[in-house]
Amino acid sequence: MSTPAIEVRGLRREFRASQGLFAAPRRVVAVDDVSFSVPAGSVLGVVGESGCGKTTLARMILGLMEPSAGEVLVDGKRLDGMDRRARARLIQPVFQDPFSSLNPRRRVSDIIAMPLVAQSNVTTSEVNRRVAESLERVGLSTEQGTRFPSQLSGGQRQRVAIARALVLRPRIVVCDEPTSALDVSVQAQILNLLAELRRDLGLTYLFISHNLAVVEHVASEVAVMYLGRIVEKRESEALFRDPRHPYTRALLDSVLTPEPGLGVPDVGLGDIMPDPANIPPGCRFHPRCPACFAPCAATTPRITSLEDGLVECHLAG
Amino acid sequence: MSALLEIDDLRVTFGGTAAVRGISLTVEKGETHCLVGESGCGKSVTSLAVMGLLAKGGKREAARLSFAGEDIREYDEKRMSRLRGDRMAMIFQEPMTSLNPAYTVGSQMTEVLRRHRGTPRAQAVDRAVELLTRVGITAPGLRLGQFPHQLSGGLRQRVMIAMALMCDPELLIADEPTTALDVTVQAQILRLLAELQKDLGLGILLITHDLGIVARVADRVSVMYAGEVVESAPTAELFRAPRHPYTRGLLSCVPVPGKVKRGDPLGSIPGVVPRIPPGFSGCGFRDRCSFAEAACAGPLPRRDVGPAHEALCILPEGVPA
Q1: pLDDT band at B321 (very low <50, low <70, confident <90, very high)
Q2: B149 in A contact zone (CB under 8 Å)
Q3: How far apart are the CA of B253 and the nearest CA of chain A, in angstroms?
Q4: H or E element in which residue A68 lies
Q5: ipTM of the modeled complex
Q6: Sheet strands side by side (includes A26-38)
Q7: Residue-wise pLDDT tens digits, A40-59
Q8: Closest chain B C-alpha to A236 CA, distance in angstroms
Q9: Is the pLDDT of residue A5 over 90?
Q10: Chosen CATH of B5-87+170-312 out of 3.40.50.150, 3.40.50.720, 3.40.50.300, 3.30.70.3400
Q11: B-chain residues within 8 Å CB-CB of A195?
Q12: Which of A156, A183, A196 lies closest to B209 in CB terms?
């Protein structure tokens, strides 16, 4: 079997949230013992509500944040102890907001060149050649390369962010809500571009989004996160056809597809909000779960393996 | 009987720039009219113009702007402010920025009633408790004493809605009320709005960029592009037979489960939303439109293209179905 592009084992991250001057800080577990692997060339979609830990997970996989426990392997190599430059050649990010992720005082071509320049062993002519190549790949003109980010539209800025991510020819790109800040007509352009790049360059994506319709469209496999745990991870098609975790079902039910006459669905989650600083005992989803029964409040469900993935629920066991 | 809100040929300019270029729409009592469009199309400016809340430098002109049969064009600030928050209420996208962080939920909610109606404090508190319960907040007494930052996003938006309802408004203008919320909470909030509308007979002008929301909650839809309503129709009709090239393009951009195969490219509209320079005439969409021809630079006809269905386009029947 070939080496997975990303492998994560027992990953955990805690934060200490201050409660004021004299109170003891609270411990917030943002990612709690998460393990999975992403085969090379595939797209793992990660979905969940805000605060479920999806961005924390992405930051640890990018090496931008130290895990409290567990390890990340990228292309079979451990991330901790890896040289920053070597890491940058393997894995690159594309963030949500192209308005804040680009340096406003640098020209587009300089922004795209930055990762190459930081490698410090690339000649100027090589840098220029690769920047031009990157610009062309994402559909920007040479002239647009001479502009400042403020002179570009949101979609064009996101193309710059993608060009910067690709300039080192990485194997893996972590996309954290890459289209959430964009208009729908532009979102479609960027999603189509990402799909084309993956096909042409054989990239692997970790694709984080709160938009399930988008994830269904791009992902080959989907992980559903709830309060720091992956509660269901399945092949995309199977997950959307037949969700096994009640939380996944609720998420799918709450998607408003543009089909008139159906009205707004009753998701049945009640109005208790998940709080990562106060994780309920037993199954962490049980206070909101419409299918909750006796064991849910008492015991933590075990991971059940399915033919096409896994689910963490008492009902599935 | 006249409509609750009637807008005819509304124009808004900032300096020389036209943000809204002659839009007309009506909201009937008990009806949800959705104004849908991408950022910069002028949908929020439209709502602010109706409420008389345009930023400094904004100029409003209209052939008609009436609320419950009364012409509000010539209302001065004092009369407008008496209307706002009373018979005409508004909720915004980000409840954190539209609630005052320095006052408790209770004092902000009761202020509305005390100011508009001179209601004594105790009675105003009773009304606040009643409405917080109505919008599905458990322990309303506790919430009244809390500050906005102590509430989750979903709770804050419920508080905003409850606050908007304090004076029994007839018209509710909701500008992207669920955009900052998780999908699960979004569904709850939209259900709540629909329920309240049924019970109270509210007219709602809902501004959104999300065609999913439009499909599920609107009675009527107006699609805005570059400061104009390019197409307007009853919801089912618009989704069944979109006639304007922009509406058609916009609908093809949204991934629909089961409709677009994974891996197949989504439909997309080439180019970007233009900035409309002063003195611009003709169709604002023509640079991105595959049906564009020379006549698109001239004045455009607004045609009937179906039952209660209008499109602003040179194509006589709109885009062929």
Answers
A1: low
A2: no
A3: 6
A4: none
A5: 0.84
A6: A26-38, A6-17, A69-74, A77-78
A7: 999 999 999 888 999 999 99
A8: 10
A9: yes
A10: 3.40.50.300
A11: 263, 265
A12: A183
